[in-house]
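user: can you give me the structure for this one chain? tokens are fine.
assistant: on it. calling the predictor now.
[tool input]
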Amino acid sequence: MKLGFTTLALFMEDNNKIINLAKEHGFEIIEILGEGPFFGKNNMEYKNCGLDIRIHAATVDINIASLNRGIRAESVKQMIQCGQYAESINAKTITVHPGIIGRNEPRIRKAALEIAIESVGEIIDNTNVEVSVENMPVRAKFLANKVEELEMIQNETGCCLTIDTGHGNTCGNLKEMLDLKNISYCHLNDNDGEKDQHITLGEGTLDLNLLKKIDTAIIELNNFDNILKSKEVIDNL
């Protein structure tokens, strides 16, 4: 498995420190947490660092499926800007969340899903990097926590997919999610099967055998020691 980690665990640490840690521990990929503070730094260290660089686009206060046109427009604008920034540092992919709804009513969910599809298409049309949409956890407000919704977004837009193992574990559909086409990479984390806890692999109910189906992955935890523990679990599969 080609393996990396998220900078969530080292957010706003020196970029060279992050790159050196990746190389020291045998990682091949870094997924940058692309929240606002990151873009206030000079991040050109990543451009030619010899690693596969991906960006997780911002999620805080972002909703590309919003029924509020202003919020939707600003959210899409920021995703496009993230894609353009990714190109400037030679990042291959931006991972985007598909959006949320205020009330889980069928007509609202259907409308928001249509808006999400339109938004993802717009992001793809205005960027030159791979755009990958992530599956979401079990909570009713999230779009694309159902296989058919994520597959619909992909079929309508041609986007790639980022499959989060923890999210799929809360929904009971991880195996089906991993069978979808054009998966760019996966997020690896564990939980109790009910809440999106992002705990160390092997400490929850995730079926670790499913990880054997994965070719490229990011360990998505907020503690670097736990990232290394999870890497050891993967190495021993």
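assistant: here you go. Strands lie at 2-6, 29-34, 52-57, 93-96, 130-134, 160-164, 183-188, 216-219. The longest strand covers residues 29-34.
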